[in-house]
Amino acid sequence: MNRTITGIGAACMDYLNVVEDYPAEDGSTHILSQMMQGGGACATAVAAAQRLGHRGRMIANVGTDETGRQIIDSLKQEGVDVSCVRCTEGMSPSSQIMVNPRTGSRTKFVQNNVLDPVEWDRACIDMIRTSDVIHLDGTRYDNAMAAAETAKKYHIPVSLDGCHMEADKSLSRKLAAQADILIMNRRYPMMVSEKENLEEALAYFAENSKIVITTLGRDGCIAYIDGRMEHFDAYEVDAVDSTGAGDVFHGAFLAAWLNGQDIRSCIRYASACAALKCTKPGGRTGIPSHTQLMKFILERES
After folding, report:
1. Helix (H), strand (E) at residue 103
2. What are phi and psi of 280, to 5 degrees?
3. Residues 192-195: contacts with CB within 8 Å, 24+ apart?
4. Does domain 4-12+40-92+116-301 bear CATH number 3.40.1190.20?
5. Is a pLDDT exceeding 90 seen at residue 14?
6. Residue 102 — very low, low, confident or very high, per pLDDT cuts 50/70/90?
């Protein structure tokens, strides 16, 4: 059964450069290939959920420039509802990404989003109110907190990508406390909680969130389940580019969760989806369909 996931957060364009090698500061290298692709932590998660069979929606502001049009078009191509992606005066967010083809690792240079905050009109509120879950990335605290508070008002579950940290960590803790599903990168748990070790940090977040996970890239992820940490290995693939792997993990996890899978099954599903994404360049090219993903999982676990 198709469910609806609404994202409130980053929607940008990624300019990907596959480089011969990553140079030291004040050095140089050769660009082997270039491509442009829709990106943004939240937008890519929603695109992944859409490709896996659910309905994706996006609430965000983009600029009135050509990049803004490209961001919207890239989401439309995925079938995402962009009726609440609005054009406002200013420069649209973008990222310059340098990809090392030997390791699949990437280095990002991100332009900050300085556009006006989202205007919470009836259309945006209704989009949240009629969702099965909302997904936030916290890149704009004002937008994320407003969305979380609206979702709570209508008893809509909140998912948060714990990646962006405010200078005032108390603000990040306040936003994290709104999350029913909190999936963080490896730096976020201890830096935001200010606890002495990872187990204490995850236990701290579990006081408010039903699902607490920290992703570790090729080292897999750790979930806090039934009062203890549990490690899950990543699927091994010939990685080409890790851009967007974490974002895809979020979207796939939510897709599986909305299908009624238990947390361990959701993690395996999301891990496999992120791994497959890494076999193609950019954050979205390699996102599989549900059928392709299940075939991959069955082959690896048979």
Report:
1. none
2. -130, 155
3. 192/162, 192/165, 194/169
4. yes
5. yes
6. confident
